[in-house]
Amino acid sequence: MTEMTMQMSSEVLSEVRGQVGFITLNRPRALNALSLGMVRDLMATLLAWKDDARVLAVAIRGSNKEGPFGAFCAGGDIRFLHQAGSQGNPLLEDFFTEEYALNHLIHNYGKPYIAFMDGIVMGGGMGISQGAALRVVTERTKMAMPETAIGLFPDVGGGYFLSRCPGRVGEWLALTGDTIGAGDAIAFGLADGCLPLDAQATVWDALGAQTFADGAAVKAFVASKTVAADEKLAGVRGQIDQYFSLGSVAAITAALDAADSEWARSTAATLRKRSPLMLHVVLEQIRRARGMGLADDLRMERDMVRHCFFLRAGQSETVEGIRALAVDKDHAPQWNPARIEDVTPEMVAPFFASPWPVHAHPLAALR
């Protein structure tokens, strides 16, 4: 028997069909970028289904202008972040606190949560998919944590999941913001299998029409439909580990500058465009997070994001980065400091000092 249940806002569509809860992110004009309202709808839906015996598993997808699939989620709503960050709007604090709590819930959800990661999966889209029991990519998946391009850092648990990629892949992805496809996402431990594009709708619909013994059977059904995908970056893995294992951002960029490979030159050029300060912050973040559990990593990132927006008065790299990329679109951010070599440890350290006592931290309850 099929039963339609709750329909939250028009930007987050949710229903129960058969034994599965289905969520569709429905903000296609913004590539399903997450607003505070969407974060709240997702949290409310998942909490409602957590103890609902009818729901054995949850499936989530995105939509594009033509219909379902095509784009998963491009991240957080950066125009909102710019406006709120420029004006000191307290809703910005709520956004990050609630988004990170949602990320934590997904990683610790008691039922299989299956993410159909078609198209663009970036930033906040990684936050609502990396904790999934099954992370399914397609031939057109474009995955990245591109935050250093806007003077931010890979948040939403990025320290946790990037630091657990093989070798020094985490440092490379976090610092450059480079985009990877399905095969590399699987090889790097950021996806579990590739579902062919023409199978997505069939599998999605079958989940609501079949009878399953338990949540594990739902997950196994989807996993059985996945196929192998080609790695594109196997040939440069050695270079990634060689350069991104070095002790500092200055050492990494100097070594890349001195190398004679096309990959190294283009990687050095990418790093030179990023916020020098945030490159140093991000390297420290990834290396700290490697020894942290998820809850501690999210608390650290909450401290960091507070510093990015509120504690560098008039000097927010993030507000400037978003301005240059998405508001004025001049692609000429005025980073401060302007050079990687001019960043000092004294500039980096405050990002890792919590503005809250332990008992009053906004994410104190996460375990």
TrEMBL record:
InterPro entries this protein is in?
A: ClpP/crotonase-like_dom_sf, ECH_dom, HIBYL-CoA-H
Q: Which residues form the Enoyl-CoA hydratase/isomerase domain?
A: 20-352
GO BP annotations of the record are:
L-valine catabolic process
* Gene Ontology terms for molecular function: 3-hydroxyisobutyryl-CoA hydrolase activity
Q: Which domain of life is it from?
A: Bacteria
**Alphabetical UniProt keywords:** Hydrolase
Protein name as annotated:
Enoyl-CoA hydratase/carnithine racemase
